[in-house]
Amino acid sequence: MSKIVDVVVPTVGESVTEIFEVRILKDVGEYVTEGEVILEGDSDKASIEIPSPITGQVTEILVEEGADFPIGDVIAKIEEKAIPAETKSAPTSAPQDSPSAATETVVAAPTPKATPVEEAEPPKTVTPVGAETRVKMTPLRRTIARRLVEAQQTAAMLTTFNEADMTAIFDLRKKYQERFVEKHGTKLGFMSFFVKAIVDSLQVFPAVNAEIDGDYIVYKNFYNIGVAVSGPKGLMVPVVRNADQLSFAEVELEIKRLAGLARNNKLKPQHFQEGTFTVSNGGVFGSLLSTPILNPPQVAILGMHTIQQRPVNVNGNVEIRPMMYLALSYDHRIIDGKEAVSFLVRVKNLVENPEQLLFDV
Q1: Are residues 288 and 189 in the same domain?
Q2: pLDDT for 39
Q3: Which 3-state string (H, E, C) describes the chain?
Q4: Minimum mean pLDDT among 144-148, 213-217, 313-317: which range?
Q5: Angle ∠(312,318,321) on CA atoms, nearest 5
Q6: Is 204 in contact with 346 (CB distance < 8 Å)?
Q7: pLDDT for position 22
Q8: Alpha-carbon 214 to chain mean position
Q9: Predicted TM-score (pTM) above 0.70
Q10: What pLDDT shows up at residue 13?
């Protein structure tokens, strides 16, 4: 007795409820092998390939090209059978419905392609109208727009600013860079200093590492730091997990690994999940100062900016120092102003005195 299997839209990540703009790769009547991709679509966080759960013949495609559909929907039916040697994947007519055909539901495992919430795909269609050009927002851009509006509507967001003298980090990198590369196979960058300074400060000010759940404040006892890396489609913010347990070298190697995945479009939805705090590095694009927007459900985000040589007062003398503006946006519902300012001052002091991080003092 032949068996017909339902192909169901799989769960692809937390808070993802819908797949957008399906692309049909196999027609009714075609033969497919187990694991062969039959449809593609986009979610809030990634492009998704939906594979066949069995080897057999496609009997029905239940969605239209370009349609949107919710997680859990049946999108196709496949009759389990061996592929004929003489035809393999050649299309044939679809079999008639049979009352004796057994039907079961199988959720196909997703094979996501990295497409972050932080950046959208290039527009696919452009329709000129007079002197204007109308461009349909991609699903990811719609998600970005929705999340940014939600962040400002649901949180009491404020931003506090400070600046950090990067001289000590410059000196350390100059002194130890060659030996660091020889031993660890990667350069000592600025980001590991900030990640370690952030983790230290989050441990002192736990509300900055929390989130709101209804009438409850949920304090996170782990430290997953979202770090900006560049990919073909723009800036992405995957998560460096358990950053408190990593050394400087391990932080740098993990950032390097994530950056490599981003460049090759290999980041998966799970790389963006469960972050507790985000650091946004607009300085790589030349930003001098900005107000970063919260990444819900996180309640704080640190903005790093470009380093400029500026005159500053050092022990009563004017000196030219490499200075970076820092911006901390936070949710005032659970983080008081004093707490936010103190957190940012601690980050600043640790960055300016990195030996405290190195020697854990």
Answers
A1: yes
A2: 85
A3: CCEEEEEECCCCCCCCCEEEEEEECCCCCCEECCCCEEEEEECCCEEEEEECCCCEEEEEECCCCCCCEECCCEEEEEEECCCCCCCCCCCCCCCCCCCCCEEEEEECCCEEEECCCCCCCCCCCEEEECCEEEECCCHHHHHHHHHHHHHHHHCCEEEEEEEEECHHHHHHHHHHHHHHHHHHCCCCCCHHHHHHHHHHHHHHCHHHHEEEECCEEEECCCCCEEECEEECCEEECCEECCHHHCCHHHHHHHHHHHHHHHHCCCCCHHHHCCCCEEEEEHHHHCCCCCCCCCCCCCCEEEEEEEEEEEEEEECCEEEEEEEEEEEEEEECCCCCHHHHHHHHHHHHHHHHCCHHHHCCC
A4: 144-148
A5: 45
A6: yes
A7: 75
A8: 25
A9: no
A10: 57
Q: What is the mean pLDDT of the chain?
A: 83
Residues 6 or more apart in contact with residue 193 via CB below 8 angstroms: 169, 248, 350, 351, 354, 357
Q: Give residue-wise pLDDT tens across range 106-147.
A: 555 555 554 444 475 555 666 555 678 887 776 656 766 777
Please give the positions annotated as active site: 332, 336
Of the chain, the percentage scoring pLDDT greater than 90 comes to: 48
DSSP strand pairing (157-165 vs 46-51): unpaired
With respect to residue 135, please indicate whether it lies within any of the assigned structural domains: no
Tokens of 251: 């932080």
CATH number at residue 326: 3.30.559.10
Q: What tokens does 278 get?
A: 């985000």
Q: Work out how many domains the chain is built from and give that number.
A: 2
Q: Domain range for residue 171?
A: 157-358
What gap in Å lies between CA 43 and CA 108, rounded to an integer?
15
Residue 117's pLDDT is: 47
Please report, to the nearest 10 degrees, the dihedral formed by the alpha carbons of residues 275, 279, 284, 288 taken in order: 150
Residue 97 sits in a domain of what CATH number?
2.40.50.100
Query: How sure is the predictor about 216, in pLDDT bands with cuts at 50, 70 and 90?
Result: very high
In a shared domain, residues 178 and 92? no
